[in-house]
Amino acid sequence: MKKSVYYWSPCLTNIATVKATINSAISLAKYSNHYNVKIVNVCGEWNKYKNYLLENNVSIENLSFDYYNLLPKNGFIKYRISILIIFLVSLIPLIYFMKSKKPDYFIIHMITSLPLILFNFLNFRTKTILRISGSPKLNNFRKKLWMISGKNIFMITCPTEDLRKNLINSSIFEKNKVIKLYDPVINIKEFIRKKTKNNFEDIKDNSFFIAAGRLTKQKNFIYLIKEFKKFCKIYPDEKLFIFGEGELKTKLLNEIKKNNLSENIKLHGYTENIYKFMLKSKAFILSSLWEDPGFVIIESAFCNSMIISSNCKNGPKEFLLNGDAGLLFENNRKDELFKKLIEFKKLDKNKIFEKKVLAKKNSAKFTMYRHFLGISKIIENN
Known about the structure:
The structure is a single chain. The chain is α/β, with parallel strands linked by helices. It has helices at about 15-30, 50-55, 75-100, 115-120, 140-150, 160-170, 190-195, 220-235, 250-260, 275-280, 295-300, 315-320, 335-345, 350-365, 370-380; strands spanning about 5-10, 35-40, 60, 105-110, 125-130, 155-160, 180, 210, 240-245, 265-270, 285, 305-310, 325-330. The radius of gyration is 21 Å and the shape is globular.
């Protein structure tokens, strides 16, 4: 009899967690016939992925009615309001959902407080797997919730060793319940499809730097623009393409205009095929304040790009092997990225090649199949 595995991941924007959820669910359905895999459609947020998921033997289960398009999404306050709405609207439906569906496993990716609170008070036999990523702030509410929930959580997964150690050192969870599980960043089939589908001849090789991510405070693009400006004073023909959408778009455009960088820095919005540009870039720049380790640097490494990354919390340093597989600069410090860009320009081609090889080798840990081996081991070794 197949084990039922349900994913809880109410993603309000197109963030890395969407890819993590989709690829994790598909990996279980693709590499084994022992699981009945479903994603809980909390407010209609998964509707646009329905056909793609069904093609890969993953279905969505509606929790209540569709109100996704009514939720405010851009900005910290609006996002928090949306989470509160989801919490209140989903409370009763989730109770009935769990009682009627009785899933064997419930994998929690986003808006974790609602299912964790319910599972503490209601005696569901479902085994809960909690995925923790990023740089979670251990405020009093979250710390108490995790401490109370810890006894009922079957397993906690995190994508980096740094985060695993931080969670263990916090003494919130039992040490043997916290394990590192690489995120399923690389879908090789999808990568090959996107690589062969598009004509890349319109993009000149090694003619630009690239950065990508949501246009939010976390990604620290204002810092990136200021540092790239200094770089352009020495190398005035250098180009930087930034891909992504978000609430800081207008602010970033104004910053580019104010510094007379319109010819050097371009905001390209969201693209379905970032690989097209990663494959052709000089280097990928990660300026984030925190990551774990950052889907985009893993994808860039898989595309054989050179990586220049901030040494931010929970990941890039680990992924880039302390700088052996790329260049690291001190997080958010004046002139640090500028200095690394200068260092990159002067770096020997053979040295760049060596770093690229190491990074690409490391990115292979983040394929869907490697993730499947890890998540299925958790489920089977219960």
